[in-house]
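Supplementary notes for students who missed Thursday's class. We covered one full example, reproduced here. Read the sequence, then the structure, then the short commentary at the end.
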Amino acid sequence: MAGYTFAEKVLARAAGLREVRAGQIVDARPDIVLSHDNTAAIYQTFKKLGVSRVKHPERLAITLDHAVPAPTTQHAQNHAEVRQFVREQGVQHFFEAGRGICHQVLSEEAVVLPGELILGADSHTTHFGWLGAFGAGIGRSEVAALWATGELWLRVPESMKVVVTGEWRTGVTAKDFCLKLIGDLGVEGGIYMSVEFHGEAISALSLDSRAVIPNMMAEFGAKTAYLPPDQAIFDYLAPRARRPYTPVYPDPDAEYAAVHHYDVTGIEPMVACPDSPDNVKPLSAVAGTPVQQAFLGTCTNGRLEDLAAAATVLRGRKVAAGTRLLVIPASSEVLKAALQLGYIQTFVEAGAMIGVPGCGPCMGNHMGIPAPDEATISSANRNFRGRMGTASAPIYLANPAVVAASAVTGVITDPASLLTR
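Structure (token representation):
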């Protein structure tokens, strides 16, 4: 009999079963249940279930991050209701407005650990695969059911194995690899699959870069994504972990629905063009396209490494006339480190605007909504029509250095052309 995949092992544990196989339906008990500003809406559904108390409040993790500071009275009321819910239910893992984006903050706080199951009312809950956890996005009504019962039925996903080898070229990032993969296989290429990433090129990545990959797999249709945790992950968690954990690894003879091989040596910087993350072209093919806005941030590329790459490009330069640059660190920890290292000063001197840690304009709520027909180049994960709040405003996705270089020139630009001057 074949061995077991990562997904099969984690969901067997979460369901209290000796073994499960892809396609099987299980009643899973997640270690953590994630929600954010949408907690208030979920609570309205929860109350309709006729239950007054959350079964496992210690498993809830809640952030205020999607519209912070509150841009309207309605948003402020929403936040107030979330705070009241947190107090009433005794939720311990609560992070206030300004702490940062849920996926980044829960990673920094080690609320989620290797081998665990986290289900969240956010599509990018796949993010936690960088820690070797099974993260999956679910609907609001499903979260309400989880609050009430502590468990939820899940179909065990088939698994895809992506083996990544070669050496990363200067200027080529995990974001470029993800765009290449999604461009090759499409936004439904990993639909309801557990996508496992293996190979020497994955283990060679920094921790900041590793987090990009499972985050972007939400745009691949994946149910979850996974990077095998190694010593670098264990060292990161050593001062942070709040409880014991057991890493989970797939068996060498596990069965996969598909296996893909990528050599990153030949990959160049990539850009996702409007209006889909799989409309991907090489940077060289779209260089010179005018942009009126550049956005650096989000749960995909708002970490310190991303800000460092942008600061290198912006140092001693100015944002182009007619173009604006918005920088939003993914968390208060990232903001503090960027302040200490001088990156924020570099951004301000270049003419950038600095936003409060959070999601910002990523989903079109506030802060940086473009005007009709204004083009934005963004380090985010998603560029569907209207994603940033304006249906007729095209969005391009790229790595942070490309975003910064494009802000300097006012057109989509290869940062190498600036750094070699």
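Commentary. Residues 270-419 form a domain with the Aconitase; domain 3 fold (CATH 3.30.499.10). The chain has two domains: 8-15+23-262, 270-419. If anything here is unclear, bring it to office hours.
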